[in-house]
Amino acid sequence: MAELKRNMIELVVNPQEVAEGGEPEVKKYWTPAFIPFTKVREAMELASELEKGDTDDFGKSVDKLVDFVTDVYGNQFTKDELYNGIHAPTAIETLQEQIMFIAQGQQSQSTKNFLEKKN
Q1: Residue-level pLDDT at 20
Q2: Beta-carbon count within 10 A of 14 CB
Q3: Looking at the whole model, is its pTM more than 0.90?
Q4: What span, in angstroms and rounded, lies between the C-alpha atoms of 20 and 35?
Q5: What is the percent of the chain with per-residue pLDDT over 90, rounded to a whole number?
Q6: How many Cα atoms within 13 Å fall on the side-chain side of residue 3?
Q7: What's the pLDDT score for residue 91?
Q8: Distance (Å, whole) CA 64 – CA 66
Q9: Phi/psi class of residue 75: alpha, beta or left (left: φ > 0; alpha: ψ in -120 to 50)?
Q10: What are the tens digits of pLDDT across the range 9-43?
């Protein structure tokens, strides 16, 4: 168990400045070294809920997803920081990658690339 998998998410920490034409400052956040197995069940339930694609509850599902990701990352960032710091065109895909990491251990390509450079 010495080699525990981790994942990361990148958020823009100065969205207001970027909206005004400034350069984005991106911060990488890492999952804790240990994530309890109970999170797999939560991830699977969320994935199932999102697959159903009920548009009436889409906002609630996204809120649950954001709450889940914030919790998994040990509240290193707030729900608002996640909503405002994630790039809209890839937000859902990025959040779904977080679920897949928890549920199946799949790391995003950017995480794999970063870890390869680090080693």
Answers
A1: 95
A2: 16
A3: no
A4: 38
A5: 59
A6: 1
A7: 94
A8: 5
A9: left
A10: 999 999 999 999 999 999 999 999 899 999 999 99
Cα 21–Cα 26–Cα 31 angle in degrees, nearest 5: 155
C-beta separation of 65 from 23 below 8 A: no
Q: How far apart are alpha carbons 98 and 15 in whole angstroms? A: 22
Torsion sign across C-alpha atoms 68, 69, 73, 74: negative
Distance CA 78, CA 4 (A): 25
Helix 58-72 × helix 91-104 angle, to 10°: 60
The 10s digit of each residue's pLDDT in 35-65 is: 999 999 999 888 887 787 766 677 888 899 9
Distant-in-sequence, close-in-space partners of 65: CB < 8 Å, separation ≥ 6: 46, 50, 95, 99
Q: Which H or E run includes 93?
A: helix 91-104
Q: Give dist(CA 4, CA 53) in Å, integer.
A: 33
Residue type, 101: F
